[in-house]
Amino acid sequence: MFAHAETPLAHTADYPEDPGLCGPGSVSWQVIGDVSVFVGGVRALLIQAAHPEVVAGVDDHSRYREDPLGRLSRTSFYVTSATYGAMPEVTEAIARVRTAHKAVSGYSERNRPYSASTPEFAAWVHNTLTDSFLEAYQVFRGRLSEAEADQFVVEQTQVGEMLGASPMPLSARDLRRWITSHPDLAPSSGMHAALRFLRNPPIPMLQKIGYQVLMNGAITTIPEPVNQVLGLSVPPGARVGCASLILALRRIMAHSPAWQAGLERCGEPYDPRLFRDKR
After folding, report:
1. Is the pLDDT of residue 1 over 50?
2. Cis peptide before 272 (omega within 30 of 0)
3. Residue 177's pLDDT band (cuts 50, 70, 90)
4. Closest listed residue to residue 122, CA positions, set 192, 57, 198
5. Alpha-carbon dihedral of residues 264, 266, 267, 270, nearest 10 degrees?
6. How many CB atoms lie within 10 A of CB 82?
7. Mind giving me the DSSP string for 176-235?
8. What phi, psi does 167 have (nearest 5°)?
9. Contacts of 196 (CB under 8 A, 6+ apart)
10. Do residues 84 and 261 make contact, with C-beta atoms less than 8 angstroms apart?
11. I need a labelling partner for 38 at 20 to 30 A (CA). Which of 142, 209, 218, 273 fits?
């Protein structure tokens, strides 16, 4: 995952007993530490493309076509550091994103201005990522209680506040409603370009086969009002196939080593059998 960027939490042991933004008892450590996060990440990218100004920023300024794995690695670094890092690591990861966003501005094809630093556009990216991680976990891992789902949203709101994102709903239900009723969603050439790329990224064939299964599973979880804009369809059995692959990946990969590193930093006891051997 981090082959094309630096390894997150490489020096996290230098901050003993620092719980970071969320902490060992958080729902965020549980949700983002599961392999269903792969589905959530793809789902978020698909949904984000439905916003013409946000996708224009990506289309105009990102090198995702030339360096897709690099962009994935950098995004994974940010999510991992913000979730499991000690506060200095959280602050640094978010500062990197905010710095990168300063140069992202322009006009969309419908002649509306955009800037990645605008709170509303940052909120679209942040909120869709939060909703996607939560939905992927609940579909492909297990249902959380309403209180747990709301706690996850509130925990992730802390990240959004540091990013300068606004508005940020404080419950899972309100978050989903904010996404599905967003007034600015519409098809665009940038959306179609992003969807073409996401359907057929330039990655090795063996990886692409697994990726297609994960992507098809992600599409099955997209709310219908958003998919009316995206116009995505999947073959029958896509969710079952994705669930089977996720189950296999969970057995092979176990939980995130970043979760383990965070627990060790905080001096929390854990069962090492739940985590992949770091050697």
Report:
1. no
2. no
3. very high
4. 57
5. -60
6. 26
7. HHHHHT-TT----HHHHHHHHHHHS-SS-HHHHHHHHHHHHHHHTTS-HHHHHHH-----
8. -85, 160
9. none
10. yes
11. 273
Angle at the Cα of 228 from the Cα atoms of 163 and 124, rounded to 5 degrees:
5
Whether the pTM exceeds 0.85: the reply is yes
Give the contacts of 31 (CB within 8 A, at least 6 positions apart). 37, 133, 134, 137, 144, 152
Please count the other Cβ atoms lying within 10 Å of the Cβ belonging to residue 199: 14
pLDDT value, residue 2: 39
Q: What is the pLDDT of residues 62-82, one digit of tens each?
A: 767 666 666 778 888 999 999
The count of residues in the chain is 279
**Mean pLDDT across the chain:** 93
∠ CA 239-242-246, rounded to 5°: 135
Q: Are 43 and 109 spatial neighbours (Cβ–Cβ below 8 Å)?
A: no
What is the per-residue DSSP string for 241-279?
A: HHHHHHHHHHHHH-B-HHHHHHHHHHT----GGGB----
Tokens of 110: 């419908």
What is the rounded end-to-end Cα distance, in angstroms, of the chain?
A: 16
Give Cα separations from 80 to 10, 57, 90, 108, 145 (angstroms). Answer: 11, 23, 9, 31, 24
HSE, side-chain direction, 13 A CA sphere, residue 276: 16
Six token digits for residue 10: 């490489």
Q: Which two tokens stand for residue 92?
A: 């640094």
DSSP states of 80-127: HHHHHS-HHHHHHHHHHHHHHHTT-EEE-TTS-EEETTSHHHHHHHHH
**Rounded CA Rg of the chain:** 18
